[in-house]
Amino acid sequence: MENTAAVGPKYKYLVLFALFLAWVLGGIDRTVISFAAIPIAKEFSLDPVAVGQIFSIFFLGYMIMQIPGGYLADKYGPKKVLLTIVFVWSIFTAATGLVGGLTSMLAVRFLFGAAEAPFSAAAAVVIAQVFAAKDRGKAMSLYLSSSGFVMVFAPIIAAQLIDVAGWRNLFFILGACGFGIIAVFFYTFKGDKLQQARELVTDATQTVATQVKKAEVPIAKALKIPMVWYLMLAYFATYTLLWGLGNWMPTYLVQAFNINLKEAGTLQAIPGFGSLVGFVVSGFIIDSLSDKQNKIVAVVISVISTVALYILYLGQVSVTGVVIIQTVVNLAVGFIAIYMPVLMLKKLPVEVIGRIGGIGLFCAYLGSTIAPTIMGVITKAAGGNLAASFVYIFAAGILMTLSMVFMNTSVEKHLD
């Protein structure tokens, strides 16, 4: 093993910052397509179904690689996996600007999604290694708050760059930024720093709740825990909401309210700020509350967001009302999106976090894959009325609420 200078207790925050930066860029890379889709659809003469396929195909690749990604992180260690992921996804981000039609766009977006997929599972392993279990909720919250920053700034960045430089140059610029992240990772993970940081964490191989002392917990035993299956349903529903609304909302705002792309980008930053608040605050709330109290919070905000989605589906909502509803939904999704991985980090043995996390994200991106295309099909069947497709989003809100209602966070007896 390559020797490096000894790391101190603050090193874990450098690791967290590096993961945060990388996931901000990854989030921007996959989010800007929601705005680029408007000029792309015009240039390639695409109908709503084809646009939905462009949104969905990324998540198909992402979904397929979730379980293998978790396995790779567990088997080969997160350092190699993270460096490889960022290099490959940057290549395909830049390649998006070279496509010549629908077929090549679908191929590049699929490969881009597959390349980016293992990142979250590998990041979860790193957080579990360098943070004590009692601090993992806050660490995961801060890491995932990157998604909130993305939702605030990606709409503005995308709309402005598309207006100034065109949608192709947007992807060239973002692809180049990926190599800056690689340089950050090389510095952060140099030598055996991660291993040293892990040795500083006395409970890095066990969870606070269960204090599992076995060398390894079989994945089959972990899959017998009811909490894991409710988490799968929650992941599916939450990411259906996140990306169903996120992908189609810029187009809806432009079409329904006759505003331009830059105005839509500015408006979308407001719900993005709601996500940012949800992501940042949630981890601290979760760490300070009991399991029962966290479940109550999750159920209440799920119900509120589902009611808001029903109002959106009914229509007759002004542009201000749409932005308010999306902000409420994003706040709820921000909390649930933190609550799910924190449950895994606090309740499950670290040996299976990568694989269970991979399965959870497989379900998440199954929802993300299906939602845009189904919404496109509904929109086309409704004569181009995108608002009709919100019925699918409302159904996802109901599923999210039910999964929170029936969530059982007791895992000890299943690991005996």
Proportion in β-strands:
under 5%
- First-residue to last-residue Cα separation: 35 Å
* Regions with little confidence, pLDDT below 50 for 5+ residues: 203-215
The ordered string of helix (H) and strand (E) elements is HHHHHHHHHHHHHHHHH
- Number of alpha- plus pi-helical segments: 17
Largest sheet: none
Radius of gyration: 21 Å
Strand segment tally = 0
**Helix proportion:** over 70%
Mean pLDDT: 82
General description of the model:
It is a single chain. The chain has 416 residues and is mostly helical. Helix content is 80%, strand content 0%. Helix 2 crosses helix 3, helix 8 (136-165) runs antiparallel to helix 15 and helix 14 (291-314) packs antiparallel against helix 15. The chain is globular and about 55 Å long. The model is unreliable at 203-215 (pLDDT under 50).
What can be said about this structure in brief?
This protein has 416 residues and is mainly alpha-helical. It has helices at residues 11-31, 33-44, 48-64, 66-76, 78-96, 102-116, 119-130, 136-165, 167-188, 193-199, 219-222, 226-257, 261-288, 291-314, 319-347, 350-381, 390-405. α1 (11-31) packs antiparallel against α7.
List its salient traits.
single chain; mainly alpha; 0% strand; globular
Layout: helices, strands, pairs:
Elements: H1 11-31, H2 33-44, H3 48-64, H4 66-76, H5 78-96, H6 102-116, H7 119-130, H8 136-165, H9 167-188, H10 193-199, H11 219-222, H12 226-257, H13 261-288, H14 291-314, H15 319-347, H16 350-381, H17 390-405
Helix pairs in contact: 1-7, 1-8, 1-9, 2-3, 2-12, 3-6, 3-16, 4-5, 4-7, 4-16, 5-6, 5-7, 5-9, 7-16, 8-9, 8-13, 8-15, 12-13, 12-15, 12-16, 12-17, 13-15, 14-15, 14-17
